[in-house]
Amino acid sequence: MNADPLPFSQISDADLRRAFAQRSDPHPAESPCPEPERLWDALHMDPNLPKEEARRIVDHLAVCPECAEDWRLAAHTSGRLSVEVLREMPTREVNLQHKPHHFPKGWAAAAILAAAACIPITSWFIQKAAESPTRSAVTYTIEETTPETLSRNGAVLTWAAGPAGTRYDVVVMAGTRPVKTAKRLEEPRLVLDEATLAGLAAGTLLQWQVTATTPDGQKVASESFEARLE
Amino acid sequence: MEILEKREGKVVFTASYLRRVAYSTLVDEIRRRRRRRESPLEEPDGNARDPISPAPSPHATAEGRRISESIHGCLQGLLEDRRRAVTLHLQGHSVPQAAEILGWKPKRTENLVYRGLADLRQCLTTKGLNP
Largest alpha-carbon pair distance within chain B? Predict the structure, then answer.
């Protein structure tokens, strides 16, 4: 006997993502499937790709499950989607009746194959300064160094520094509500003053992400970090 | 093309080289997956989709397909910008990421996601799929 499905008003975002990812029948699209290079350019905001074309590619993702899956693969390979988010979105028939889902082997194999096909790719994502007791001059993985709980008096977000001359953009959110945005910081820290935190209740979970631009122009995006407000 | 450089006595690949290798490997992987989709009779390789669970019942399969069709139909009924914001949200992107990809301000994107999801849920409810 199948369990009663929930009313859609109660379906969580995770369930909606699962259902979206599990579409199996492509619908006629007004535009053909974009070349993989264009998917990459749209995903990484290449300045040479007009924004209107990027939006049309997003339109295509809404009707083409296969391109949507390619997009997610590209996003995960370049660190823009975490494994935890991908685990919410297997590539099977839709079932919102809460049967257990598993991280699909095909997905894991494809992502790992793409990442491990060349050792430098793996190095790009996991390269750390562990060999040296002090930070190496170059880090490509942004790791947070912020406590899990932030005080309203002197809340400071910090993360591992990149090479000299790196600039940092930071976005801080509370759920879907923007809290603070900072551009081109010269130091790996961002102060959240009392005025910024004034409208947030105690216990609010903040999510924040750092995008570093190294001196040679490369952009490195961190995972989404979390900290809870006292 | 500079591939290697020395830093503090260690030889490492440059960031630009690593990025190019990741890019070309990913593009090749996507093309390979597309060829496999177009030729389903090809012998499956190690990356072929494996069953992750026992096959669902015909009822579950039919129900799943109806839900999938409903999501597609409701998405197409959204206002264009709301649909775009919601599509990226359903793809797993955060609001700031979606704003950057679409070239919009974060606040506007946040509103579009919020209202788009509300419209999507309302539409799905009116589809009457739940008993």
Answer: 68
